[in-house]
Amino acid sequence: MTFLVPIVVLLPLVGAALALAVPGHRELQRGITLVALTASSVLGVLLMFVVDRGGPLVMQVGGWAAPYGISLVVDRVSALMLAVSAVVLLAVFIFSIGQGLADGDEETPVSIYYPTYLVLGAGVFNAFIAGDLFNLYVGFEILLVSSYVLITLGGTAPRIRAGVTYVVVSLVSSILFLAAIGLVYGATGTVNMAQLQTRIAELPSDLQLILNLALLIAFGIKAAVFPLAFWLPDSYPTAPAPVTAVFAGLLTKVGVYAIIRTQTMLFPESSVDPLLMVIAALTLIVGILGAISQLDVKRMLSFTLISHIGYMIFGIAIATSAGFAATIYYIAHHIIVQTTLFLAVGLMERQGGTTSLSGLGGLMRSAPVIGVLFFIPMLNLGGIPPFSGFLGKVGLFTAGADLQTPAAYWLIGIGALVSLLTLYALARAWVLAFWRPRPASAGGAAAGPAKEPAKEPAKPPSTEALMLRQREQAMIERLQDAPDAAPAQEQRRIPRLMVGATAGMIGVSLILTFAAGPLFGYAERAGDDLASPELLAELVLHGEQPNGGSGSTAAPEEAAHG
Amino acid sequence: MTMPLVLVAVMVVMYVAGVYLLLDRSLTRILLGFLLVGNATNLLIFLMSGDFGAAPLAGGEEPISDPLPQAFILTAIVITFGVGAFLLALIYRSWRLARVSDDHVEDDADDLAIGSAEALTTGQVTEDDLEDAPEFEEDVPEDDPEEVRK
Question: Is B90 in contact with A475 (Cβ distance < 8 A)?
Fold first, then answer.
């Protein structure tokens, strides 16, 4: 089954080339992209089963043996990431087709949108299957360059402004990564992750620390952990809704995946775990406080995105197999739920004409379906029990409690607090956008105000509450009067396809919930793999899994012959 | 492993100048800074390749240079070139859009809005404010005996 490995990357790349070759034919481009992404999704799920059954797949590109050639590795973690990200790319693509059909594509230069989107997918997949550091760098560059194009799509003034920040920050992180690769190569003489594992262990500990930190800083910018996350809420919200959704879901997680690989494959005995604990705590707190203070729903979601990266860093810092397992499950959950939320906000924007909470209101009457589509992922992200967000957090907290260190207990407390605050921030947005009567325009025509006075007298508001209400009113008024407030777009028709794509994503998140047993089992096996990376290294270098491996019996096939 | 001091010095100077330019607000300088830092990184990889020898593969008997870093550098140069071209296009577009402010990095309007809104919300609630605030009639007799006297 080794031949499946490179197809994951080739499929979207070939699709992109074909789509680029027929610039005038939108239908054809759409069809090609749809086929390529559907095939990638199927392939991703297939790889999950194959890898879970038969152990990791290793392909030596061009038949050159491991330390000299380029290895492509798919183990349980990468297979899960591939499957989830392919499904997300497909769903968001269907959403954007719906949007494009409704708007007549006048906003986006479509002839490059589809190919670029596919190349972005190829970059993400390439980063997930990379078996050596330099290939990981190339994967990052592929996805970054296409993300530069997507974030500045159309070249309007706000997008160019946001794009400049994004591009410059990404460039700096890429150069840091490249320099770190140079240093690693200078210290060890290899970039193959499997070989690095043994070579790095032989280095003096202070040198190990420097290399570890250099890589972590480079990946930290991409993963948007606390001190390095400043760029994210600035740049994501201005992009078109589907682009923001896919960026929020995937790009930061590629950074987290790279951190996981660094901490397990390269530095299994890492001494920076306590530092990661602190960073996780700060990311959680600062991110969610940022979210609470926002009035724009997209920016608020960008901040919750940063905040929840903290949970994943927490799981990595626990550094036990249970911790890794919970992290893997949490990443899968978060990719899906965050993308769904951004898609739902895209729908809200079409319905309400703006994403600012000062302009939204009364959506529950005009679009109850969107209300549900936002409400379910909101509960999910906030960690309300039946959903996957709750399961992921329980896994993380259990693993943390097993560690029995003060830092872990602190983080459990902070994590619980942050999940409450997430719920608060999102619920506030939901209430303001959906339950409140529409603020400026159709004020009289709403049943909302008729209901609310009926509730009020039961509990007379205190003076403080009145003060707060007044100030909120003043703040909202002031924001509406602001000269640079975005003019509300006129309300547009919402095509079924967009609603369908969002509902489909919610369906996927429900699958994560209902199939949590097998999936968490899978994540636990993947966590075991990550906790004993020497098995994978052995497999990559010598093409055989030593006995007593993680339950796999079938020896993987010989490296591909050319 | 020996390193030629001159190359190390050149690398350091390029890094310093590049980082200085990257910190500037003018986009053209950021581009120049990026190119300098990128090339300094290429030099860094080159320096990491160990002792220099004959050309790889064709070198014959003598010890050869390590070819792998050279391959890295080639890839990195291509990527830097492509991204540099994109950055130039971005700068041109930015300049076309806002000729008034040259090619500077713009402020984020939403950030500023939040900043001013924060000034609005973090004001202290004083006793005077509370007295001025409209109260519900039925609250007055129970809570505040002084108000009753008035």
Answer: no
